[in-house]
């Protein structure tokens, strides 16, 4: 359904959100976390607009935290969208720690 991010893996501890080429890294991360006994929910953010916010909130609420994995511009990406959605629907869950790697232009 348009606006709903497909669930690649079900999990209860942490939600990983990724898309495109970065999904490979997210899958590897999910495998490593699973090996350590951490239950990972993996979402494919196949589109950023339109997005079914209530559906995303429902998915994210199933876990204790969210990590976005992106391979493009940090500003205006998946992390920004997730923060916007959480701040609107669950501001009490907004503990933000951004790690930016390779956010530069050639």
Write up what this structure looks like.
- The protein is of the alpha/beta class.
- Helix content is 31%, strand content 16%.
- It has a four-stranded mixed beta sheet with strand order 1-3-2-4, sandwiched between helices.
- The longest helix is centred in the first third of the chain and has 13 residues.
- The chain is globular, with a radius of gyration of 13 Å.
- It starts with 6 loop residues before the first strand and ends in a 17-residue tail after the last helix.
Number of contiguous helices: 3
**Spatial strand sequence of the major β-sheet:** 1-3-2-4
Average residue-wise pLDDT: 86
- The multimeric state of the shown protein is single chain
Helix and strand composition category? alpha/beta
Tell me the number of strands. 4
Low-confidence stretches: none
Major pleated sheet: 4 strands, mixed
Distance between the termini: 36 Å
Overall 3D geometry? globular
Strand content: 15-25%
Listing every helix as H and every strand as E from the N terminus to the C terminus, the arrangement reads: EEHEHEH
Q: Report Rg.
A: 13 Å
Fraction of residues in helices? 25-40%
